[in-house]
Design goal:
314 residues, alpha+beta, 60s Ribosomal Protein L30, Chain: A, 5-stranded mixed beta sheet, Flagellar motor protein MotB, cell projection, transmembrane helix, MotB-like_N_dom
């Protein structure tokens, strides 16, 4: 029993070698490190090659991304395109350079010219309304006065491109003037006096022209002809308009056209071709008439011959 108490206790220790398997955790750590270094060097390269304006745009985007996306700006790219910005020139400091060779089309607007055109249109509308009102007033005066209403068929009133045109035409048995003369019939004078009163209601200038039919004057072209007769009749009408109260300064032009401008081109001898035409001119026609030579007035047969002789000499 004593021997059993002295028996030695043996402890076995196992020492493992250092060359055993350690697993793959180090590989994952190394891959993360390499990826981080690549990202770092890529960031440094981008910062070195990006223009200052683009860097400011990128910084602005990260500060207020919604504002830049909505309104665009330096570094925000072309807001009208799905593919943003870009360009060939990386040395630019501000904004982007459009890729492509198409020239940029710039639209310019002349606001002053636009305002002038609008003002001219408004003036034309106002003038047209004024002339329509004058037309209605003259027609009303003719309808309200029995002495004038009976000559309604001889009064032709219409709106033309030149303005308001009032034509007083002959009828077979009711001429405006004495036969082959520039003497107004009493009823023609009444009509012209009434028209003269109405014309002062508008600021527009007036043009008068006398017309005859194609029947030659008795003395022929060598003496007093339809040219002189038409001019004298136009001037006699001018005097009747002024007697009615029309301001003399309103008359811009008085001309005799003989049978050069027929009313009835199919029948040059129709009495309707004998007429007086009064045009209340619009602004455009007035300016054109002023440039073409102004007023031509003849008050007598002698002056008519002198005017024609002077025109032939020129």
């Amino acid at each position: 029993m004593a021997d059993e108490g002295l028996r030695p206790i043996i402890v076995k220790r196992v020492n493992k070698g250092g060359g055993g398997h350690h697993g793959g955790a180090w590989k994952i750590a190394y891959a993360d490190f390499v990826t981080a270094m690549m990202a770092f060097f890529l960031l440094m390269w981008l910062m070195g090659s990006t223009a200052k304006g683009d860097l400011q745009g990128i910084a602005e985007y990260f500060k207020t991304p919604l504002k830049v996306a909505m309104s665009g700006g330096s570094g925000a790219g072309d807001s009208s395109s799905v593919v943003q910005g870009g360009g060939k020139d990386l040395t630019r400091k501000d904004g982007q350079v459009k890729k492509g060779d198409d020239p940029e089309i710039k639209k310019t607007y002349n606001l002053q010219a636009a305002h002038l055109q609008q003002a001219e249109k408004e003036l034309e509308k106002a003038e047209a309304a004024r002339l329509r009102g004058l037309k209605a007033k003259i027609e009303e005066a003719i309808e309200s006065r029995p002495a004038l209403k009976q000559f309604k068929k001889q009064l032709l009133i219409d709106i033309t491109t030149e303005g308001l045109r009032i034509q007083i035409v002959d009828e077979q048995n009711r001429p405006m003037f004495a036969l082959a003369k520039a003497e107004l019939q009493p009823y023609t004078r009444d009509i012209l006096v009434e028209i003269g009163r109405a014309l002062n209601d508008v600021p527009n200038r007036v043009s008068l022209s006398g017309h005859t039919d194609a029947t030659p004057y008795a003395s022929g072209e060598k003496g007093y002809s339809n040219w002189e007769l038409s001019a004298d009749r136009a001037n006699a009408s001018r005097r009747a308009l002024i007697a009615g109260g029309m301001d003399e300064a309103k008359v811009l032009r008085v001309v005799g056209l003989s049978s050069a401008v027929l009313f009835d081109k199919q029948d040059p001898f129709n009495p309707i071709n004998r007429r007086i035409s009064i045009i209340v001119m619009n602004k455009k026609t007035e300016e054109s008439a002023s440039k073409d030579g102004g007023t031509v007035e003849v008050s007598s047969e002698t002056q008519a011959r002198q005017e024609l002789a002077g025109a032939a000499a020129r």
